[in-house]
């Protein structure tokens, strides 16, 4: 009890004021009970995990190119975002970490033990700064717990991206070398291989960003970072003993990773573990099924088109794909599709009764309703009741990091492909193209997403990354580092509707599900009717058909989304610029 009480005093006295670099003095309570025993070090480092916000990662892709939602993201809606409403310039977590690193020096604790926990602290400092650099670019590098007397540091300008990211990688190198736990049973704590996996993420991001964001003039350092990304990923692949979970077969294994209460330890490296007994739960169902709560986020058809056929060929090679009905387009595809959206024979429990669950048009605008994080029981659909753990780092990402880094370096071999992308596709039931590098460009993928990429290997790695990691919080970062911000302006398109007033059976269970109309027809019982008239009560209708009376569903074509180069970074909040004008605002804001 005394240890917990002293820790609370210490932690409370280690916070910044608000969102500036202004700080209060260090704690005057004795540090002995915390830093003189391993139990104290455990208690302190456990406080760092809150900064990951892991339970909310299931909704982190709400702003991405492949998601339509109930409103347009304010960040790219003209006139809706500015420095006055920006956020994220908060530094309290850094103060807490630096305080620990400075004071973890009590000789009563063996050096190797201290270095283990310092390694964990430096992992989290790297995490903190990686998020800051992604959001704001250049930021002040602070590696000590500031005191009120440190006026020069408190009011300094921003350090260069190169300097900060070199420091981030130095922190990760220390973490990789000194964290002693190689794996951990519950997958809720940072381990040595979590540090290597995270290093592969950081170096891939920074290496590709410097390659494609040419205005930074940092391209000469790209190859070194990509080499480090591949090397870090390879350590995990060769030493850690992880593998893709395949225990439920090609039809269920992929989704099981995201709905299992306990992290599937074969694949999950780090997870936000939920616990019903502790009332530590998430809102996965509430967010992904509610018509009022959350963003009503659902996939667009352009992205769904990128899922391969089960034989490994592009779906869009079929000349009929543009007018294919929903019930047909979901068949014979990469098995991850049926594990990511409602389709086919998907079912849910309703008060213990199994019911067919086609796309629900009181929720979806496009027809492609996600199920990746939602449990198949309506009990969980209201409030934060979900018991499924949320993966933060998993082995599939490591394989993708390795493949992409090597592909960007031009050194990915057939053997590398088979050991990374090939494994991911085999788990998804794909039978072709899993053992050798692709040789032919998919013109749909290139034209729709990456017109400047002429290497079929890079194109296919990017396809795989989008599909495998969808809804896990990577997509916006990927768009930024590939310099493809224009994708955020993609039309929010949905399934093909052949005609008005004709009810459709979306899951072929013999029950009609939805019909689209401009003048309300005689209703069929059990059918959801969606109006697609150009005007409703004199106002523009956001839900239309692309050809008027037929075609793809479209959503919010009447609300502009505009991407500008300034959107590759967020603005520093206006209040923090007033506090410290030396920071200088990001270009365009």
UniProtKB/TrEMBL annotation:
<dbReference type="InterPro" id="IPR033985">
    <property type="entry name" value="SusD-like_N"/>
</dbReference>
<keyword id="KW-0998">Cell outer membrane</keyword>
<keyword id="KW-0732">Signal</keyword>
<dbReference type="Pfam" id="PF07980">
    <property type="entry name" value="SusD_RagB"/>
</dbReference>
<protein>
    <submittedName>
        <fullName>RagB/SusD family nutrient uptake outer membrane protein</fullName>
    </submittedName>
</protein>
<comment type="similarity">
    <text>Belongs to the SusD family.</text>
</comment>
<dbReference type="InterPro" id="IPR011990">
    <property type="entry name" value="TPR-like_helical_dom_sf"/>
</dbReference>
<feature type="domain" description="SusD-like N-terminal">
    <location>
        <begin position="114"/>
        <end position="204"/>
    </location>
</feature>
<feature type="domain" description="RagB/SusD">
    <location>
        <begin position="299"/>
        <end position="589"/>
    </location>
</feature>
<dbReference type="InterPro" id="IPR012944">
    <property type="entry name" value="SusD_RagB_dom"/>
</dbReference>
<feature type="signal peptide">
    <location>
        <begin position="1"/>
        <end position="18"/>
    </location>
</feature>
<dbReference type="Pfam" id="PF14322">
    <property type="entry name" value="SusD-like_3"/>
</dbReference>
<keyword id="KW-0472">Membrane</keyword>
